[in-house]
Amino acid sequence: MSKIVHEKPHPFQDFWKHAFAIHGSITPHVLPNVLAVGVFSTLILYAASFAEQQWKWHLRLEVAPYELVGAALAVLLVLRTNAGYDRWWEARKVWGGIVNQSRNLAIMSRTVLSSDRKLGEEIFAYLKAFPYACMDALRNEKPGEDLRRLLLDKESLKKWQHIPNYIHVELTRCFQEAEKKSWINSFQHKLLHEERLLLINYIGMCERILKTPLPFVYAVKLSRFILIFLLLLPFGLIPKVLWLTPFVTMVVAYALLSLDQIGKELQNPFSFSNLSHLPLDDICATIEKNVDEIASIIG
């Protein structure tokens, strides 16, 4: 049998693909503000030229302060971006834990499925539904089609505000019933209890990330800092680049505003509206597929 070799894209091709990508890019989000800065810079340029010709006024500032302020501003933006990425990566690790725990619980529940088909299928349905319930809760959405498809008791979806809690309670009931019917012993029940607790801990960790954004005062001060810097930047560029001042100002604005927007995007890794959101739909589908695979081996 011939071996299929998948060639990796050349780094040079990958660079140009990313450089001109529109889908998933923050450029459309920052472009209006960049253009506004360019228009303002053009007005300042013409005002400075008019004032110099008419009254011999020189509307210009030294470049040295901009270098110091620009360096400090860049550091603040990088720190914010790093903080946002830490939140994004922590959320991804937590969801990796949900994947692993779902597999573990499915494997550990094989005895129940082989002994009591109805109870076992109920447990496996809850294991498949749990990640979808977490995704909907983190996105502040009503139970989706996948959740309604997997859960037999549709009325409970209306009664419970926090569906992950409902599934956790039902899993507890199922495992207690399995122990009562002697499908599992007390030691197995203890292990299942510990593994199940990790699932509810993971959704709690996600909610902590979601409900604890970066301090608002930090975001406000940083935005004002960027605005003041960009409004004063043309006065420092006019003596150096003259009519290129609007273009250079827009380039600087694009860099600063892009970093600021990236920091905002990474704050909430769960929201579907954010460009860099975690692929929760794919992760949930993977968990469902894995649990079904484990169930099919037993069946």
Descriptive account of the structure:
- The N terminus is likely disordered.
- The chain has a domain of 134 residues.
- The chain is 79% helix and 0% strand.
- The two termini are 31 Å apart.
- Helix 3 crosses helix 10 and helix 5 packs antiparallel against helix 12.
- The longest helix has 45 residues.
- The chain is mainly α and 299 residues long.
- It is rod-shaped.
State the gist of this model.
By secondary structure, the chain is an all-alpha fold. The protein has helices at residues 11-19, 27-55, 64-108, 110-115, 117-138, 145-150, 154-159, 163-180, 186-211, 216-241, 245-267, 280-298. The chain has a domain at 98-212 and 280-298.
- Low-confidence blocks of residues: 1-7
Structural class: mainly alpha
Amino-to-carboxy terminus distance? 31 Å
- Which percent range describes the beta-strand content? under 5%
Helix content: over 70%
Order of helices and strands: HHHHHHHHHHHH
User: The biggest beta sheet, please?
Assistant: none
Radius of gyration: 28 Å
Q: How many strand units?
A: 0
Tell me, what's the shape? Answer: rod-shaped
